[in-house]
């Protein structure tokens, strides 16, 4: 049964040094506040999984919190490369970074298989693609009926999944609307989960019967953090802060500038700042 | 005829290659502009799909990312990402996929992973994302890239996604039944694979582009079709719609 | 692009003798009108697929239209056995019936794999279950990472999927709400599809962004048949006609009574009758 | 104490075995009554899941089928059937599954497929439905069946779903890690598997039922626990809630 608690408590109780953690979000609903809280609490040696690592993983890698990255597309969406990640891969700064690299299809299927309790995912993939050479976690099996060769990857089974969503009920049921990405699968594939939400409501009586809802007993921890996905967006609440994504390209270009920015905007801040950051981006209801 | 840029020519040429009945897997940048230009001109019923899960979108402005809220707001439906890759891409429902990348070879194989050695890269690029399966699951692939010696290389540092492999029947030999790269649209020309060798061959030159320019900006010996066309110029309507789209986009995205 | 046409045209154009057809619906939204039209048009030698064959397949089997049944649970829901199907299996009346029998999990996974364009589905199933002995379409593969043995079944790829749904737009986009069963997967796994709907509306602008919608280009044929799922129900339109399910137990108990009932209520009727059949079951909006 | 029927005793005994934290995969008939009785008495937060895709339902009346509209109307969410079987059942999220059938053996294996030979059956039964995977994917299995020589047989005509197999470690030897049938609740008694042999053993007799009655209505030599309890009688509250539920159900379903 989900605990409704502060983000600080949720991170302290659920994320341990050395854990495998999936902070998921597909452009929409990226859990920035939870990633920042994880950095403030000094977590280290994390293996982080994500289809589209962007600013938050650039920040976590740049701060030296990450031992290994499992991913399929590492970019600053609509802007360019991830400079802190490049620095770690190319120059081992601030530490060496192990990488396990997949395609989007493989990652999505691996979450799906994890949610489905399977040890692996089978899909038609990786034909003629060179990742097969460098990633030992890509294998092939034959369809026992047609003989067709199909790709296989291990299911994702993170220790913790961390996502941001629109709403939770007081019991801890969670509603995700719009571009839902792989967040439901990430939570269902994980041993524990933290969900930050814009608001907590009495019930979901007015919600569509087939909307994406995670029942309270599938979620470990719910924390209310308005604006918690900034500079990503939350459909129905606030728009994407495109300027911040552009700004990140400059901040992340220099180690000193990056460290100073992180000290000021992450390490010395609290989750409450996120509500202020989205004030000018509010969507008209 | 008004003036136009080579990027505009490239976008217009890509848009024209799309049919009203196409179902397109759209990437950000040039493909997004081309697909939406097609939708706003000759292909009003074209289906645009972004890998974030939005199916049948009709954005008023170009998205900055493949998961912008407007894509969802204007979509026929928005599905989860596992469903997108399983039912829609792998399910064989996409007629045209767009790809581009840091490096391209003459068989349409693409690198978006690393420059240099994989384990000790000179430049760590973003990686493949959807490309490895887009390349093999879509009915055919259109590639849009500006020509340059850095990008059009004789040998890729890494094969992120399969084109025609080593040429000839190599793609089919790998068990891939889709057509693969059927068109390469650059700022200078349109290239199509030779029916036999599958090597990209220039079939149409854009206005003002010369064979020499084309040949000098690729890292292999460029082949030209026996009958070389000249790409029809962008029409006034195409340019107006495209420029309006970019103007709306710029206004919307700087509005915050 | 979906054709909007009469049910009679839709069946005539899409269902051929000898076809493999999935009339799907999971208690909710069972396409009775379309099954009746198929019988009226005299289709024969059909292979019919369905997780939960109930009255419509009992009717089709009893009328001799079915050569083979692929299924996982054949019962009159909440009432008892399917008497026409029993007569065919036990006494070959009116003809012998081939059966290919699976579990629900296998059937659901086989539709899912069909929708996903895969040749087979892999799942954790059939352990210690004797269907493995009698169904050669159940095989096993090993996970290439853990060695775990997993069940495999061929994907369903019917020639035609037939479903009933709440609404279509004038373009032919289809909306399914409530208990959606395997209907989306059935349509996406099939070469052709027929969807009967309660009403045709201008657009789905007021529909939830994550509602179950089949875009018009994934559907072959849409036919408006109000009441078309009776005596099953359509959420938001009319309730289940429980009395009809009870009555079926009596009608189907006797070959003569069955044949006479079919002549009167199916063979000599038209799809328009369905609107009348649900008149007393309407749901208050 | 009021009078009560043996079916009521069976339902009450099954309901009591459920905890407030349980997530139950509910079938129609006795299991549905037991699960909803538990929800309306000692286990208000119990999660009831029907295989039609409805998760966390709280129907006011018992459904006639596993896909009644009220299950969806009162559910926390309703998912597709493939998702139900993949994410929810196979995903290992169900703590208790209910099964019953035409034939049961002393190890909790069940037949709902055929009486007689599979290819030439005497009676063609409905088939397994969800049972083969419910039997192995749920944390544990409760079986509710009325005792009879026809139903409680020494050897099944067909093994539709696995219980403890041939007993002992056979279930685990087949690679199944869940507990399997942990409780058999009949109209006469409660049976639990012997820790070693896994054979069902009577641990509690319902009021009025005798060892002889129990032994005479099963097709094998019934075993009894050394210390045999008497099943606590249904309380007045349990009977009232159960009868109200049945009365509401009858009124609702004959209302059409």
From TrEMBL, chains A, C:
Q: Which UniProt keywords apply?
A: Transferase
Q: Which InterPro entries match?
A: CoA_trans_fam_I, NagB/RpiA_transferase-like
Lineage, top-rank taxon, reads: Bacteria
Q: Name one GO molecular function term.
A: CoA-transferase activity
Q: Give yes or no: UniProt keyword Cytoplasm.
A: no
Transmembrane parts of this sequence: none
Q: What is this protein called?
A: CoA transferase subunit A
Q: Which organism is it from?
A: Roseibium limicola
* UniProt lineage: Bacteria, Pseudomonadati, Pseudomonadota, Alphaproteobacteria, Hyphomicrobiales
Automatic annotation (TrEMBL), chains B, D:
Q: Which GO terms describe its molecular function?
A: CoA-transferase activity
Q: Which InterPro entries match?
A: CoA_trans_fam_I, NagB/RpiA_transferase-like
Report the leader peptide range: none
Which SMART domains does this entry report, sorted A to Z? CoA_trans
**What is this protein identified as?**
CoA-transferase subunit beta
Origin species: Roseibium limicola
